[in-house]
Amino acid sequence: MEFKNHLTDTICAVATSPGTGAIAVIRISGEKAIEITNQLFFGKDLTKVNTHTVHFGTIRNNGRIVDEVLVTIFKHGKSYTGEDTVEISTHGSPYIQQQVINLLIENGVKLATPGEFTLRAFLNKKLDLSQAEAVADLISSKSESSHRLALQQMRGGYSNEIQSLRKELINFASLIELELDFSEEDVEFADRNQLKDLVVKLHKTLDNLISSFQLGNAIKTGVPVAIVGEPNVGKSTLLNALLNEERAIVSSIAGTTRDTIEDEFIIKGVNFRFIDTAGIRSTTDEIEIIGIQKSFEKISKATVVLLLVEATISENDFSSIVNQIEQKINTAHQKLIVVVNKVDKEDLNLIQSKFASFKEVIFISAKEKNNIDLLKTKLFECVQLGLVSENDVVVSNSRHFEALTKSNEALLKVLEGIDKGTTSDFLAMDIRQALFQLSLITGDISSDDILDNIFKNFCIGK
Amino acid sequence: MLNTYDVIVVGAGHAGCEAAAAAANLGSNTLLITMNMNAIAQMSCNPAMGGVAKGQIVREIDALGGYSGIVSDESAIQFKMLNRSKGPAMWSTRTQNDRMLFSHIWRIKLEKTKNLDFWQDMVTELIIQKNKCLGVKTQMGIEFYSKSVILTNGTFLNGKIHIGEQNFNGGRMGDKHSSGITEQLCSYGLESGRMKTGTPPRVDGRTLDYSKMEVQNGDETPSKFSFSNTKPLAKQKCCYITYTNEDVHEILKTGFEQSPMYSGRIQGLGPRYCPSIEDKIVRFSQRDRHQLFIEPEGWDTVEIYVNGFSTSLPKDVQYNAMRLIPGFENAKMFRPGYAIEYDFFQPTQLNNTLETKAIENLYFAGQINGTTGYEEAAGQGLMAGINAHQKNNEKIPFILKRDQAYIGVLIDDLITKGTTEPYRMFTSRAEYRILLRQDNADIRLTPLSYNIGLANDDMIKKVEEKELSVEKIISAFENISLNPEEVNGYLEEQNSSQIKQKVKAATVVTRPNISIQEIYKRSKKISETIEMFSTEIMESAEILMKYEGYIVREKEVADKMQRLENIKIYDNLDYKKLSSLSAEAVEKLTKIKPTTIGQASRISGISASDISVLIIHMGR
Q1: What's the ipTM?
Q2: Is it the case that residue A57 has pLDDT exceeding 90?
Q3: Which residues in chain A touch residue B606, judged by CB atoms under 8 angstroms apart?
């Protein structure tokens, strides 16, 4: 059961309300809160700072900056939970929050169960008994809604995939337990190669599910859309038109947008995360070159790429820039839409013949906000039709991601054990861990499930 | 005649005998009532003790001061350590036993036990006042009074025997059944159910042709169950293996219409892991043969137990089918196989001391709780006997935890989850099985038993000596280095890579296939530093060194769980008043009344948030 692993672990959760605010606070509580945060934080050594102090620095993933943050340290039980606690204030983007949470999980922190911070506060006598009933109500209502949410997130084939994974893992565990508890029986035991094949297969299935988390995450935290184009074609103006407010710095001086700016936008309930990029052109300006490199990086991360060109562009220049972009994208996972801007500055018939060869093309005027709705519809269709079909097996829940990852780690140990010739009672320890982690998604998997499976499939009994 | 006791034990099977011995040895004036003094500790089914998981239970009973291990050793005709090729937690002791000798030795052990009286009679009624059990009434009209009563009725409560279309009342072939108790208990709100089990035919060994069967010998160097100074077997008897075939199956099928199982005359729940031969044929129709173990019933008797051929088909069908088994062409039958149905009480109606929740001072142990197996019964009997004594003397309950003993797993499973078929122990039921090994049962349990006054001074002294010796061995191996020339020859023999420079002996012992005794013999310095201890002690030290990583890891998991085990739930908590609990949780918790948060978390259908709510109400 989920609860068993907790209470002694270090836990984390986003403490601010979900969605995009100016900032978000991620709270980490438990014995290793400071130690683990310190591994990700670049700035002061957090293990050596005083309690109740705030520190500026960056959170990095393999050296790459995820965000600039402020970190507040609470030591010696002087915190909400009564445990060592760290609060990381990040920028408000859900994407960043998710990245930081993922990093923490990778480093051994567990996602808090609903109400767990409050529960710990209570257990550490930070709340008085009169608050108990309220806390209990909170926990039960929160866990119910989070459970409902998790169920909703089991889209399409995901639930089936998990069920079949559960079944296969139980089958595997049965084969191992069979030769332990029923070694004297007249049944055929699986040989090591068979077992190895099974683990490898399970491992692959898990790997696929785990890597689908990125896509699932994209749906949850926003489908990334990159807007690219030459300088001063109106990328920032388009972004503002879509967002309907002045976010990016807009001026007519080419190259004004030197860093990427992200923002979010909801079309018919689907969250899009727009990435405005610095313009792409040949330049010698060092700062601008960095900006251009970043733009290309962003393209690789986007699910949809909007190539913005001016209506007045020559046919040669157009095909050259389309070529350049097409080299950077993978058409299997990414979609390219050409957006022709400033249509008010050119003859409409001429424009239409000029771009006739390219089929995904939309004519707009960002400044006049012409055809912006058409573009929105197009974006929505991309997600609806092409990129994510209803039947795709997608993991979109962090808790599931965590469980699948842990389950996979345990299976890797089983594989290692098989290679080393470890006896099956020790392999079984890791299999139990894999089953336990999966049970966090599927509900309890008990020894009875394994025994049932053995009795069903093998003729046991002297 | 004395008619007032501290503890009355009803039934003298494996559970009853251990219960009576434990209570009496702790100092309770105890009365053991059985219908037949000549059938004490009958092996009603196969003449064997132990096996995977069950062998560990016998070792635990022995470590706690029960008699099952000693009696098994003294009546053994063959010894085997099963699962030797697996890790040490899987090593399981098993003996074939002389059935009559087993019963005889038990009786003598009990007769020599202080504070223990016997009475041959049938208990027909309990004396109950205000939901407290005060004693028993017998068929002869005698009333015995006591502070507590332990029921170990086995298959006798409304027992009904089935052979083909015949059926008749009986507690075991040749013995009367007992009636009245179930009905009385149900009138106090206890719920009963029906279970079924079966047993194979017994045949005349003089009529079998063993040349057509495979021989199965015991271990070359037999070990034993008991930590005491019982002797390992000097000579052993062998068993045989033969197989059924399609002709056998065809004959058996002709009896299916008259089978009590398929006609619906038996409704009790049978064990899936111990199916009848007819069940195996139906459920695994693709198999053209099934293995049979041909087991002698003793040193001198010619009676043979046909293990694997449990059946309740008509006796002529049994006989005709059997004679088509290789080696059975001329077999004569002593008695046919049969099925037996009996009453049990869902064990979720018990506290963790095995006292019923509905009737104070009344304890259940063995098949009445829905279990099967001599070892499971004996383990429960021992615990019921201890706890009856503890309660009568206002001492704290004696509870074994899941990380301490298979007996702890057994009782916790029973009272927390109940059972839908005769419950048998498997190692996979224990989440901490790496800790619950047969080699350390004494170290795990003897000190606990000594603290309550059951294990005697000799036992605790032996354990202390063992721990000290193991420590000495480990310390020597950790401190003394091996020279390449001392051990490289041996390493090469074992396909283990040779050492190039001096290496600590403990490091070499952690390798697979490397034996501590062999290293001891080859290292001059080690053999000068410590003596060669007994195989058992050397093995214990070897296990601790070889599997240290796994053992430490399992301990950590167990300790983590301990935090939940230590949070007690107060008695008589009204779950209905905890509005934040789910309806399912309220129902289940009210019924099972867990004593700790850990136990509550093991009830199926109890969610993590239910547990959080409980913890909060316990105010930590």
Answers
A1: 0.86
A2: yes
A3: 1
Residue B225 three-state SS: coil
Q: Are A296 and A283 members of one domain?
A: yes
Q: How many domains does chain A have?
A: 3
- Does A136 contact B613 at a Cβ distance shorter than 8 Å? yes
B410 and B492 share a domain? Answer: no
Residue B83 lies in a domain: no
Nearest C-alpha in A relative to B580: A137
Q: Which of A356, A387, A418 is the last residue of a domain?
A: A387
CA–CA separation, A323 and A306 (whole Å): 14
Are the Cβ atoms of A132 and B620 closer than 8 angstroms? no
Look at residues B371, B401, B427 and tell me which one is the last residue of a structural domain: B427
pTM greater than the 0.90 cutoff:
no
Task: Say which CATH number the domain at B600 has.
Answer: 1.10.150.570
How many structural domains does chain B have?
Answer: 4
Task: Give the DSSP H/E element, type plus range, for residue A370.
Answer: none
pLDDT of residue A283 exceeding 70, the answer is no
pLDDT band at A247; cut points 50, 70, 90: very low
- Average pLDDT of chain A is 77
On the question of pLDDT at A150 being above 60, the answer is: no
Distance between CA atoms of B382 and A230, rounded to whole angstroms?
Answer: 86
- On average, the pLDDT of chain B sits at 94
Provide the chain B residues 63-122 that lie in CB contact (below 8 A) with chain A.
82-83, 85-87, 89-90
Cα separation values, B140 from B119, B136, B143, B461, Å: 11, 12, 9, 46
A48 and A172 share one domain:
no
Confidence of residue A379 (pLDDT cuts 50, 70, 90): confident
CB contact under 8 A, B283 and A459: yes
Q: In the numeric block, which tokens belong to residue A394? A: 């997608």
Same domain, A246 and A318: yes
Contact A144 B609 (CB under 8 A): yes
Of the candidates B337, B372, B400, which is a domain's last residue? B337
Residues A264 and A379 in one domain: yes
| A41-42 and A53-61 strand pairing | antiparallel
H helix or E strand, kind and range, residue A225: strand A223-229
Residue A181 has pLDDT above 50, yes or no: yes
Domain assignment present for A462: no
To the nearest whole angstrom, how far is the Cα of B358 from the nearest Cα of chain A?
Answer: 28
CATH number, position A203? 1.20.120.430
Q: Does B426 touch chain A (CB under 8 A)?
A: yes
Closest-CA residue of A relative to B242 is: A186
Compare CB distances from B550 to A185, A426, A455 and report the shortest one's residue: A426
Question: Could you report the per-residue pLDDT of B229-286, keeping only the tens digit for each?
Answer: 999 999 999 999 999 999 999 999 999 999 888 888 888 888 888 889 999 999 888 9
Contact call for residues A170 and A445 (beta carbons, < 8 A): yes
Q: Which residues pair with A227 in a beta bridge?
A: A276, A306
Return the amino acid letter for B422.
P
Of B583, B598, B600, B581, nearest in space to A139 by CA: B581
Find chain A residues with C-beta within 8 A of B580's C-beta: 133, 136-137, 139-140
